[in-house]
Amino acid sequence: MNKILEVNGLKKDFDTFSLDNISFSLQEGCITGFIGINGAGKTTTIKSILGLVLKDSGSIKLFGKDVDKNETALKNHIGLVLDEGYFYEDMTIKEMKSVIAPAYSNWDESVFKSYIKRFQLHLNQEISTLSKGMRMKFAISLALSHHADLLIMDEPTSGLDPLVRRELMDILLEFMKEDGKSVFFSTHITSDLDKVADVLILIDKGKILLMEEKDILLDTHGFVKGDKKMLNKHTRKLFLTLQETEYGFEGLTNKKNVVREQMNGVLIERPTIEDIMLAYIGGNVNVA
Ligand SMILES: Nc1ncnc2c1ncn2[C@@H]1O[C@H](COP(=O)(O)OP(=O)(O)OP(=O)(O)O)[C@@H](O)[C@H]1O
């Protein structure tokens, strides 16, 4: 599989926050979830990739080419949905589209119109009167109307109701049906990724803590409950988090098979992506 985006040694210092030597890559044909709590550095990373924030150091390659040297050509391949509105509020949908469309050499008006129809948006409606869900749908319509290969979305589901979030997930899966497409999707609402993500990248305090295929993560991690008698110097080391009560314990392990072998009789449940995220960013972590 081709690497569609390669980020190497990305650094950005703000007064009270730093992106600390961020490196990761995205594989073609994958939906990659970029997860982390509020303020973890997701937006700063995405904006640095796009050149909307000036990085201090590091290299970024899109489709194998240096972003700094090929900005305009590469922009044609990217569909962008940012969390903060980048629309002119007093324009209508049609007027805003006319500002954005000429920036893309492969703009496809018929695709745009089909999304507007599908989302029941009205070309003459003023942006300032759009609800949050309608804004997101408009942003998606723009992002998908120039045959982009990589869709980059920053917190697209934030503040949306479950129905609209589901609709968005369906659109992503539809987009992925065509060969060579990829999605990079930042969110702190990890439940959105349960169904759609192939790979997860976890960022916290400006550092990448974890990068793994979702299925492998969910297979190797387990939420374990059992009798306190099973805990000893060795078995304790198998846990990322551990809570003990008078009688029992519960904790998250990243070595599910070893726990199964060495701790007979414990109950092992499948964790959610959120359980895993919180275990890695919380204290009390024994990462081997
Ligand atoms: N222009 C800036 N100047 C100074 N600090 C900044 C600037 N932009 C972002 N930050 C800081 O960088 C940190 C990371 O912010 P960022 O928006 O990247 O996080 P995030 O993971 O996207 O959070 P959220 O989920 O809340 O959107 C925050 O502490 C923020 O205050």
From TrEMBL:
Residues 4-230 form the ABC transporter domain. Gene3D superfamilies: P-loop containing nucleotide triphosphate hydrolases. One of its GO terms (molecular function) is ATP hydrolysis activity. It comes from the Bacteria. The keyword Ligase does not apply. Transmembrane segments: none annotated. SMART domains: AAA (SM00382). It holds the Pfam family ABC_tran. The keyword Nucleotide-binding applies. Keywords: ATP-binding, Nucleotide-binding, Transport. This is ABC transporter ATP-binding protein. It comes from Oceanirhabdus seepicola.
